[in-house]
Amino acid sequence: MSKKLLDDTSKFLSYVLRHEPQAIGLSLDSEGWASVTALIDAASREGRSITRELLEQVVHTNEKKRFSFSEDGQNIRAVQGHSNQSVQLQLEEKQPPVVLYHGTATRFIESINQKGLIPGSRHHVHLSEQFETAREVGQRYGTVVILKVNTSEMLAEGFKFFQAENGVWLTEQVPVRFLEPI
Fold first, then answer.
1. CA within 20 to 30 Å of 150's CA: 73, 83, 124, 161, which one?
2. What is the pLDDT at residue 121?
3. Closest by CA position to 2, among listed 63, 52, 61
4. Best CA proximity match to 1, nearest among 38, 49, 45, 54
5. Is the C-alpha dihedral spanning 139, 144, 146, 147 positive or negative?
6. What pLDDT does residue 81 have?
7. Are 179 and 112 in contact (CB under 8 A)?
């Protein structure tokens, strides 16, 4: 399968499994799961040819591990990044490393300096253990700025952290006092 087909399908899955399942008449349960058969059928009605084999390739080759199949292989979901209010992942609280990173673009720094990191339309702020991963994420939006997040101080003040299946760290917000530009 071509890289373009895999990338296009990944973007389509991100759109429908994270944000707008109703755009193709798809339903997600409260944990974000959709029936693989229903997804293939709904995509077909919209003129998009998706096969089980293509879905398996996207799930298993996506570098960011954005999607997963249920244990029985009958359902698929995005593992984080949802903006759909009907999806409320039941994530287990976890102890994060002492420091996490967030990559962003310089054009967002003024807002971040006022509000801290907020989830925007998503359910959580996304953080990384790896500086390099944060840099790659930030580069998608322009000239990159990496912010160091002091998680130990946040924990001391009662903030909670979760980790998605793909290793992305999640929290509801990061106030400015816990951020340090690198």
1. 83
2. 81
3. 61
4. 54
5. negative
6. 82
7. yes
Comparing CA positions, the residue from 132, 60, 143 lying closest to residue 108 is 143
- Mean pLDDT per block of 10 residues along the chain (182 residues) reads 93 95 94 96 96 96 91 94 79 93 95 95 91 92 95 96 92 97 93
Provide the strand spans (E) within 23-163.
34-35, 67-69, 75-78, 99-105, 125-127, 144-150, 162-163
Residue 63: what pLDDT? Answer: 84
Which residues, listed in sequence order, are joined to residue 76 by a DSSP beta bridge? Answer: 34, 69
Residue 11 corresponds to which tokens in the numbers above?
A: 């973007």
Residue type, 164: A
**Angle (nearest 5°) at CA 46 between 5 and 20:** 85
What residues pair up with 145 in beta bridges, in sequence order?
104
Q: Counting every residue, how long is the chain?
A: 182
The three-state secondary structure class of 64 is coil
Domains and CATH numbers, the chain: 3-78 (1.10.10.970), 99-181 (3.20.170.30)
